[in-house]
Amino acid sequence: FFFFFCSFSLILILILQNPVGLVFAPMPKFVVVSGGVVSGIGKGITASSIGLLLRESGLTITCIKIDPYLNIDAGTMSPYEHGEVYVLDDGGEVDLDLGNYERFLDVTLTRDHNITTGKIYDLVLKQERKGSFLGKTVQVVPHITGAIQDWISRVSHIPVDGSGKIPDICIIELGGTVGDIESMIFLEALRQFEFRVGRDNFCHIHVTLVPVVGAVGEQKSKPAQHSVKELRAAGLLPNMIVCRSTEPLNRAAKEKISMFGMVPSNHVFSVHDVENIYQVPRMLLDQNLPALVLSTLRINIMPPVSVPIWDSIAAKASEEMPEVSIGIVGKYTGLSDSYISVTKALQFAAMDSNRTLKIVWVDAEHLERPSKRRHKHSEQAKTAWKSLSSVDGILCPGGFGDRGVEGKILAAKYARENNIPFLGICLGLQVAVIEFGRNVLNMKGANSAEFDPDTKFPLVVFMPEISPNEMGGNMRLGSRVTRLKSDSVIFQLYDEKKEIYERHRHRYEVNTELIGDFEKNGMIFTGQDELGVRMEVIEIPALKFFVGVQFHPEFKSRPYRPSPPFCGLIRAAAKLPLIRDRSSSLGDMLPADSVLSPEDGTVDETIDLSEHFSSIVLNPVSGSGVSCGSSSSSSSDTSSS
């Protein structure tokens, strides 16, 4: 009786101390992906592909990205520093690799899935100020390393796939390069974490570079050897080594890396350059990687035999189809990763419409009218305008600051006057409003208060609830509801949903005091927030396709569920019908992870669009195919920043 009484009391105490039930929750197993030799080697795609293969084995997967910089998050960094700032449903501004995880695994991550040195130190220092360490000396070891481990343990239990189930496996990608001073604390934390969770629950995969040197094309394994040596010096011994190279890894290099890396030769994987990243999961599957990971983690399930959906996506991405060209008029065109979600969303939409995407990069600054300061760049201006005039459609993505804004305004003017399909995202919507005000409503000097605080016509204004004194995390962020008008293009693109949820990232908005003049002259505001006070979508019905959205639809686009606004742009640019044949229930019959093919359905070229639009004018076009389904659910997944 005494034994059972003590046991029951202990269980009761544990329940009271752990109201979320983590005491009884199964501990996820962990796969750590590190990188060596150089940064940008492909750790994110490797981690995403491993997660995909394990998910195909029937496991639930979550991902954590560790970034060893001191910033709290990626929100205040220039895209030229680390690529785009990816925005999550909960408003987290995170590294672009979390976008890869969401696109590959179709999960919804949180801001806590991105760990930075800044977040960890901020947490520990706040605890120190509260007296949480009981007068002890706060040190890197054990307090910082302990905070890292506790963070990983906590976040690994968060359900991310909508099922409410705690993930079976957590994939941890360690950013940076092994040997960097800033990464050392995380390597030490992971060394301790391996001991904490046990070897049967910890699998370490190291991604390294095998360069090809000389005219004979000899593969050199020495950088990979030194990379593993650095890892071993930190107390970590990888279970597997993934070798990145331009060509498949030859046997001699593989055997040498196996010997010096102290792993079996069948644990050394070749990941060479391929046509598209969607071929990587198949490449790893063919080398038996998922089976070896499952064996290392002592998980007794069968690995996937194939990944048919991703094989079809990879084949589609490489298939020769009619070309459609889209000009991206941006401020950060010097680094394609600055717009990686935009380019992926365009690619998914093009694949859905059976088109091969050609992206034409146009530097917005080069479009601006010549001045004395820019006279020497006149040749660049000619090239930029020639490029813009050659495309089938124009996309103006988001951005901050006044650099290149006048060029974006001119691009919107060119699209409107020449009836070129146009999609503006965030700042792209705002420049379209400014252009319309200047050139249609004769509001001379009209501008955004962001660029000209003294303008006579402030068409875009600072949002009143946002603090002007703070930058980091101080915007309208995350998933928000937008209500659509039923007689609009955007309503049809979203499968006639009256409410959609998309992710936002902005601190300026359209001035609602002036929208009456716009609607009288042909620019209609077809989407508002739940209160009807914020303008979310603009359209010009008289044109083939001229749409601007204040939200960022690219962040919810998936390979098998492309974003509706991007589908609209691609289909308008390709001269395809915008509207799916409503007599077909194809979209409802297909599973969520299916890919539409040309044989899946057709559109009646003689369909009468007047029954769908009461105030929209569309030019009849030829062609067939189906339109995309909505990427946004109407379920209440919004959050407040």
TrEMBL record:
Record keyword Transferase present: no
Catalytic activity, as annotated: UTP + L-glutamine + ATP + H2O = CTP + L-glutamate + ADP + phosphate + 2 H(+)
Top-level taxon of origin: Eukaryota
Keywords: ATP-binding, Glutamine amidotransferase, Ligase, Nucleotide-binding, Pyrimidine biosynthesis, Signal
Signal peptide, first to last residue: 1-25
EC number(s) from the headed UniProt entry: 6.3.4.2
Sequence intervals crossing the membrane: none
Gene3D superfamilies: 3.40.50.880, P-loop containing nucleotide triphosphate hydrolases
A Pfam family it matches: CTP_synth_N
One Gene Ontology molecular-function label: identical protein binding
Single biological process term from Gene Ontology: pyrimidine nucleobase biosynthetic process
Known pathway: Pyrimidine metabolism; CTP biosynthesis via de novo pathway; CTP from UDP: step 2/2
Presence of keyword Glycosyltransferase: no
Domain Glutamine amidotransferase: 336-570
Positions of the CTP synthase N-terminal domain: 29-299
Role: Catalyzes the ATP-dependent amination of UTP to CTP with either L-glutamine or ammonia as the source of nitrogen.
Family per similarity comment: Belongs to the CTP synthase family.
Protein name: CTP synthase
